[in-house]
Amino acid sequence: MAAELSVFELRCVWAAGRNPEIVDVRSATEFASGHIAGAVNVPLPELEARRADIHGESLVLVCERGIRARAARAALLPCFPAAQVLHGGMHAWRKERFPLVRATRTGWSLERQVRLVAGSVALAGIALTLALGRGWLALAALPPAGLVLAGLTDICPLGLVLTRMPWNQVCRVQQPSQTAEEAPP
Questions:
Q1: Contact at 8 Å (CB) between 109 and 33?
Q2: What is the spatial distance between Cα 32 and Cα 29, in angstroms, rounded to a whole number?
Q3: Residue 85 structural domain
Q4: With a threshold of 0.85, does the pTM exceed it?
Q5: Total domains, the chain
Q6: What is the pLDDT along the chain (185 residues), one digit of tens a residue?
Q7: Residues 6 or more apart whose Cβ sits within 8 Å of residue 32
């Protein structure tokens, strides 16, 4: 059995009536922003502690592009020698416009939103410092200070603010529209 399978091969596996366990090793917020129907979320940092949550003989590991899924496969290989990685991960799945289950209104993970806002604030602070004077340097210092705080306390103030935004509120989960032969178990 190959170490990786494509999104098309996974759909063929389902069409053939086989039902591998799909384990998504992305963070909970990435998972909520869009995942494969029927997937179980076991974030990579929790993999060792939650190994008992993985039951399938046939196992497909998923992350955003495949890097974390490959690391998960390496860790699980002694217990799950048939484990496979979804080649290209959720990026390849979305690229083919295959159905997703979303638990939030946005398709962007919280981590991605934090990176965008922090980077934008830092760039704005630098631009304002160059254009208007050194007084704006404090604005550019906010994102690194927030990262240090998040690293020391495991609490991200910007992440907490962003979770309260309307686009990050939990919405009613809509099941993807699929025909019976396309639908995973």
A1: yes
A2: 5
A3: 4-95
A4: no
A5: 2
A6: 689 999 999 999 999 999 999 999 998 888 988 899 999 999 999 999 999 889 878 999 999 999 999 999 999 999 999 999 999 999 999 999 999 998 777 667 778 888 899 999 999 999 999 999 999 999 999 999 998 988 888 788 888 888 788 887 766 544 444 443 444 54
A7: 102, 103, 104, 109, 170
Specify the long-range contacts of residues 81-84, CB closer than 8 Å, at least 24 apart: 82/1, 82/57, 82/58, 83/59, 84/1, 84/2, 84/3, 84/4, 84/5, 84/20, 84/59, 84/60
Q: 173: which 2 tokens?
A: 């989960």
Question: What integer pLDDT is reported at residue 28 of this predicted model?
Answer: 84
Whether residue 156 is contained in a domain is answered as yes
3-state secondary structure of 63: coil
Contact 87, 5 (CB under 8 A): yes
- Same domain, yes or no: 81 and 55: yes
- The Cα 185–Cα 39 span in angstroms is 10
Residue 13 lies in a domain: yes
Collapse the DSSP code of 51 into the 3-class scheme (helix H, G, I; strand E, B; otherwise coil) and give the result. Answer: helix
Instruction: Find, among 97, 125, 119, the residue nearest to 182 by Cα.
Output: 97
Verify that 90 and 119 share a domain, yes or no: no
Does 119 share its domain with 158? Answer: yes
Same domain, 37 and 90: yes
